[in-house]
Amino acid sequence: MNNKQEKIQNTLKKDTDSVFENQLERAEGLLSYDEEGRGIPEVDEEQITRGDSVYLTLAGAWFASEAEDREDSTMDAGEVAQVTGYGKASVSDAVSKLKDKGLVRSPDRGEYSVDYSNLSSGLKEIEAKVSSNE
C-alpha cells in the first residue's frame, strides 16, 4: 500500500461499528421505542415538522428491530398514525416527501422503513433543527 492509499484509508474508512455508534448517538434524545418496538419521537412537536416526527417513528422501529425487540423495521401508515397522532393521509404525504429525499423506503406497498444508508443524515438534519430551536 502506498502513502496515498494509507492516508485515504486512515481518514475516510470507517468500520461498521463506528458508523452504528454514530447513528445511535444521534438518535439518543431524539427518539425511543415502546414495548412493541414502535418508534416514539422524544422531541417537542413544536421544534420539528410532521415529516420529522414520522421519520423518528420509523427510525425508532429500525433501532428496535436491530435490538431484536421488533420483528422487522417496517411500519404501515396506520401504525405510524397511531404513534404520531396524525391521520393516515398526513402520514402518507410525509412518507412520500421522505421517500423523495431518500430517507424512507417502501419494501412493500403500504409498508415503510427508514433507508439505513441515509439514517445518519436524516437524524443529523433533525438534530440540527432541534439544536437551533433550543
Topology, pairings included?
Blueprint: H1 3-12, H2 16-27, E1 31-33, E2 39-41, H3 50-66, E3 75-76, H4 77-84, H5 88-100, E4 104-105, E5 111-114, H6 119-132
Helix pairs in contact: 2-6, 3-4, 3-5, 3-6, 4-5
Q: Could you characterize what this model shows?
A:
This protein is mainly alpha-helical and 134 residues long. The protein has a single domain (18-123), classed as Winged helix-like DNA-binding domain superfamily/Winged helix DNA-binding domain (Arc Repressor Mutant, subunit A), CATH 1.10.10.10. Helix content is 55%, strand content 10%. The protein is built from 6 helices and 5 strands; from the N terminus they run ααββαβααββα. It has helices at residues 3-12, 16-27, 50-66, 77-84, 88-100, 119-132; strands at residues 31-33, 39-41, 75-76, 104-105, 111-114. A hairpin with a 5-residue loop joins strand 4 (104-105) and strand 5. Helix 3 packs across helix 4, helix 3 packs across helix 6 (119-132) and helix 4 crosses helix 5 (88-100). The longest helix has 17 residues, at 50-66.
Q: Averaged pLDDT, please?
A: 90
Strand content: 5-15%
CATH top level assignment: Mainly Alpha
How many domains, as an integer?
A: 1
Biggest sheet features = 3 strands, antiparallel
Number of strands: 5
Helical segment count: 6
- What strand order characterises the main sheet? 3-5-4
Describe the structure concisely for a colleague:
The protein has 134 residues and is mostly helical. The protein is 55% helix and 10% strand. Strands 3-5-4 form a 3-stranded antiparallel sheet.
